[in-house]
Amino acid sequence: MTIAEEFVQRAKDRRVQLGLSQSELARRMTELSPATWHQMTVARTEAGERPIRLDEATLLAELLGLAPPFGGALAAERAADALIADLRDQMCDRHQERIAELTSELARARIRIRDQERALKKIRGVVDRAVARPGADVPTCQCGTALDPDGTCWNCTREAST
Fold first, then answer.
1. Coiled-coil annotation: which residues (predicted)?
2. Angle at the Cα of 97 from the Cα atoms of 96 and 103, rounded to 5 degrees
């Protein structure tokens, strides 16, 4: 919707709110304007069948107590609406970026948990072997850590040199 179309709609709403008929508005516009306005002029303008000139819109705004149609309050209102929409989009973009960051952090945390679960499983295996055979020598790595059943060190991930 153009600024002119928005203004005409606001003017029509205001006319109805004030209880003015199209004929009464046409009479008042004729009093203020060098041009003659008729009820049909108002009807065609409100229906969008007739464009409104800047001087007519200015008089109509004055007559109905509206903000000037071009520039002024209406332009500021449209600029504010555009700014609000832009800020809303930026906030959505920032939230999407943050969601992506958190999703990545979650994936890294899941990998760490999986690695820790594997290490814990190896430790349990070593402990279970030591408990099952008390007094038996438990093979150890060069770093001094007990080896898991497949002969690898859960601590430094080296294979034992036997």
1. 92-119
2. 90
* Model pLDDT for residues 98-137, shown as the tens digit of each residue: 888 999 999 999 999 999 988 888 888 777 767 766 656 6
Number of domains, the chain: 1
Coil, strand, or helix at residue 159? strand
Query: If you average pLDDT over residues 71-97, what whole number do you get?
Result: 76
| Eight-class DSSP state of 4 | H
- Tell me the C-alpha to C-alpha distance, in Å, between residue 86 and each of 64, 71, 90: 32, 21, 6
The whole domain housing 7 covers 3-70
- Alpha carbon of 89 to those of 1, 78, 100, 102: distances in Å? 21, 17, 16, 20
Tokens of 77: 């209102």
Which amino acid belongs to residue 141?
Answer: C
Task: Classify residue 12: in a domain, yes or no.
Answer: yes
**Rounded Cα gap, residues 7 and 27, in angstroms:** 20
Q: Is residue 124 part of a domain?
A: no
Which single residue is written with the structure tokens 């099952």?
Answer: 132
Give the helix/strand (H/E) hosting 23: helix 22-32
Which tokens sit at 32? 């203020």
CATH code (residue 15): 1.10.260.40
Alpha-carbon 44 to chain mean position: 40
Could you tell me if residue 61 is inside a domain? yes
